[in-house]
Amino acid sequence: MRKVWRPQDRRGALSGFAVAFGLLSVLPGTTTTILALFGFWAFFSQLYHAPQQARLVALLPEYRVILLALNASSLHTGISLGSFLGSALLSSFDPKALSAFGLVPAAVAGVAHLVSARRINSSHPL
């Protein structure tokens, strides 16, 4: 029986985020480079949603509608808060330094992913 959610489903997305923010911090800030990296980041941002939603539904299928609604609301709240914080800090920091701040939530997400993957794998072995 195949698990509905596999921990490796999110590794690619988290790695893509980290690479994009890291490269934004070190590569020259030309329009072409920035647009290419934002395209790269946008591709990886779409890889996260389906595995996360599948995991939520697998955890509590009887509450799937409210879980998916809360997940979407939380996602959009996080995007809004991140945009607000980034725009507020843009006047105080160089854009390259500011993009490096994007690595902090990526690192936190990576640690949370590892902890959750260990818990899931230890409680539900294949």
From TrEMBL:
Positions of transmembrane segments: 12-43, 63-85, 97-116
Superkingdom, natural source: Bacteria
Keywords noted in UniProt: Membrane, Transmembrane, Transmembrane helix
InterPro entries: MFS_trans_sf
Protein name: MFS transporter
Organism: Actinokineospora auranticolor
